[in-house]
Amino acid sequence: MPHVHRRRLVAALATAAVTAGAAAGAAVVAAPPAGAHPFGPPLAARLNADGAEVAVTWTAAEDDWVNLGEFIGAFTGQTDQTGGTGEQLTGAELLARSDNLPSYLLSHFVIEQDGRPCEGQVTQLQDLLTLGAQMVYSCPQPVDAVELTVTTLTDINENYRTVVTSGDTSALFTSSTATQEWRFEAAGGSGTARTALVAAGALVLAAVAGALLWWRRAAAPQTAEVAR
């Protein structure tokens, strides 16, 4: 990935984190430099069922977005990298505009009901760093239980994992437990697509905070060595 895209994606995440933190009344520091960390904070997905539809919000730390963008060729595969404005697009903007991103998300986040696939569509990619990627799946019948498969980023590194949450229920999806039965709460499911949008901000802040903690721990031995 060209250095300028990586730097701009880092800067965009830092701005988004500070803005979200100010809105929540909390101080948020900038994210660490980009770099893969499948052993750091897990990816996060929030599910909300409403009738026969399941809304999904998928969030990741900044460097995981970079990894995904590099993997699908988002930063080098677009001939027009200015968006028609004459100014270089940020890494986040290039990723959102990639034709490969929707198909990647829908092929790595799969929902089935009674053995029949729920048709998915990507509904939000324009503000990945604050809202995450959002998808809506239409199932044959009103949803109470589905078979959920989550393999996001495990094709980049099998150690990636995703924490999926719905209502008070959460579960960890890994390369070895990629498919699990998922039951939604009774009485109206677990909310609506609007709930997913609200939850996304909290998820991305958690990812940023976790990434910072991981980076500090990883950097500590190096700092001690320099001090010698």
Task: Give an overview in words.
The protein has 228 residues and is of the alpha+beta class. The chain has one domain. The protein contains 6 helices and 10 strands, in the order H-E-E-H-H-H-E-E-E-H-E-E-E-E-E-H. The strands form 2 sheets. A 6-stranded mixed sheet has the order 5-6-2-1-8-9. Strands 4-3-7-10 form a 4-stranded antiparallel sheet. Strand 3 (109-113) and strand 4 form a beta hairpin. The longest helix has 35 residues, at 193-227. The two termini are 34 Å apart. Keywords: Membrane, Signal, Transmembrane, Transmembrane helix. The chain crosses the membrane at residues 196-215. Residues 1-22 form the signal peptide.
Give a quick summary of the entry:
By secondary structure, this protein is α+β, with helices and mostly antiparallel strands. The protein has helices spanning 3-23, 62-71, 91-97, 100-108, 128-131, 193-227; strands spanning 43-50, 53-59, 109-113, 116-117, 119-124, 133-138, 145-150, 162-166, 169-173, 179-183.
How is the secondary structure organized here?
Elements: H1 3-23, E1 43-50, E2 53-59, H2 62-71, H3 91-97, H4 100-108, E3 109-113, E4 116-117, E5 119-124, H5 128-131, E6 133-138, E7 145-150, E8 162-166, E9 169-173, E10 179-183, H6 193-227
Parallel strand pairs: 1-8
Antiparallel strand pairs: 1-2, 2-6, 3-4, 3-7, 5-6, 7-10, 8-9
Transmembrane segments: 196-215
Keywords: Membrane, Signal, Transmembrane, Transmembrane helix
Signal peptide: 1-22
